[in-house]
C-alpha cells in the first residue's frame, strides 16, 4: 500500500532516489518562497519563537535557546530546508478526556467546550506543488460556526512539522491573506507574551513529534491554556483557542487538514 500511496511519488520521487518528508517539504518550501517572496529569516522567526516558548515547558525536548543567527547557520538538510526546520521524532503520548459538561462540572474538572470544527481530505488536487491546504476551503465555515473572527482567538496551536506549513495555516485559516504569511511572521511576536501567542508549548519543532500523538500536541496545549492548567507559561486571560492539523504529505497537497476552536469554560 505505501509504495502505491502517491502517484506523484511513483512518477517523480522514488525513481530519482528522493523520498521522505525532508525532501518533500523542501520542494514545498522552495515553491512557496518563489511564489510569495518568503525568506529563511521569516521561517526562522517561527522556529525561534517556538524555542523560546519551549523553554518553560518541562516536557519539551529542546532545552536551549535558539537565536536567529543559529537558525540561519543550521546544517543543510534538503535545500532550502535546514536543521532547525525539521521536526524531531520522539517517544511520547498526549491525551485528553471527552465527557458531558454535567459530568465535568460534577467532578470539578476544568473544561473547555468544542465550538467549531472543520476537516478536509484531498483539497486542491490540481495544485502542482502545494501552496495551500484544505483550511482555505472551510475557514469561513469554521469561524461562522464558532461565532468568532480570527482576531478573537487568544492562543493558536498549528501543526508544525515544518515552518512552511505553519505559514500556510496562518493564511488559510484567515489570520492573513494568501501570500502574506511571511509579513505576518515578521510583524508579530509569536511568543507566549507576544501579540500572537502561537504553539505555546514549543510546538513539535521544539517539544518533539511523538508519532501520531503529534497531532494531539496542539489540542492538549490549547486545552491547558484555556483551562488554566499549563505546564509552562500561561497566556494571560486565554479563553478561546484554535488547534489545527495537517497530515499525510502528498507533495501536491496534504491529504488531510483540520481545525478546532475551543472555549475555556471552567467548572
- Beta strand %: 15-25%
Radius of gyration: 18 Å
Mean pLDDT: 91
Q: Examine the coordinates and then state which fold CATH places here, giving the name of the CATH topology.
A: Peroxisomal Thiolase, Chain A, domain 1
The helical percent reads 25-40%
Main pleated sheet: 4 strands, mixed
Quote the distance from N terminus to C terminus: 47 Å
> Any idea what the CATH architecture is?
3-Layer(aba) Sandwich
Concise account of the structure shown:
The protein has 267 residues and is of the alpha+beta class. Helices cover 37% and strands 16% of the residues.
Task: Summarize the helices and strands and which ones pair or pack.
Blueprint: H1 7-13, H2 20-36, H3 40-54, H4 68-72, E1 76-78, E2 81-82, H5 101-107, E3 111-121, H6 135-146, E4 155-157, H7 163-172, H8 181-187, H9 203-207, H10 214-227, E5 240-249, E6 254-266
Parallel strand pairs: 4-5
Antiparallel strand pairs: 1-2, 3-6, 5-6
Helix pairs in contact: 3-7, 3-8, 7-8
Amino acid at each position: 500500500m505505501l509504495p502505491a500511496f502517491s502517484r506523484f511519488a511513483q512518477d517523480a520521487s522514488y525513481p530519482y532516489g528522493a523520498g521522505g518528508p525532508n525532501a518533500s517539504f523542501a520542494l514545498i518550501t522552495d515553491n512557496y518562497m518563489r511564489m510569495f517572496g518568503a525568506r529563511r529569516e521569516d521561517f526562522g522567526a517561527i522556529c525561534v519563537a517556538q524555542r523560546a516558548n519551549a523553554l518553560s515547558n518541562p516536557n519539551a525536548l529542546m532545552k536551549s535557546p535558539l537565536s536567529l543567527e543559529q537558525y540561519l547557520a543550521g546544517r543543510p538538510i534538503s535545500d532550502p530546508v535546514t536543521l532547525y526546520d525539521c521536526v524531531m521524532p520522539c517517544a511520547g503520548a498526549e491525551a485528553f478526556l471527552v465527557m458531558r459538561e454535567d459530568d465535568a462540572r460534577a467532578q470539578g474538572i476544568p473544561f473547555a467546550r468544542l465550538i467549531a470544527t472543520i476537516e478536509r481530505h484531498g483539497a486542491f488536487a490540481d495544485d502542482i506543488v502545494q501552496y495551500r491546504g484544505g483550511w482555505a476551503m472551510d475557514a469561513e465555515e469554521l469561524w461562522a460556526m464558532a461565532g468568532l473572527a480570527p482576531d478573537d482567538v487568544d492562543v493558536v496551536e498549528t501543526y508544525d512539522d515544518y515552518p512552511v506549513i505553519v505559514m500556510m495555516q496562518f493564511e488559510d485559516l484567515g489570520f492573513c491573506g494568501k501570500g502574506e504569511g511571511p509579513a505576518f511572521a515578521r510583524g508579530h511576536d509569536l511568543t507566549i507574551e507576544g501579540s500572537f501567542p502561537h504553539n505555546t508549548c514549543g510546538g513539535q519543532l521544539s517539544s518533539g513529534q511523538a508519532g501520531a500523538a503529534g497531532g494531539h500536541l496542539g489540542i492538549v496545549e490549547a486545552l491547558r491554556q484555556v483551562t488554566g492548567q499549563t505546564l509552562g507559561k500561561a497566556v494571560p486571560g486565554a479563553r478561546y483557542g484554535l488547534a489545527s492539523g495537517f497530515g499525510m504529505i502528498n507533495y501536491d497537497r496534504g491529504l488531510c487538514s483540520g481545525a478546532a476552536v475551543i472555549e475555556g469554560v471552567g467548572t
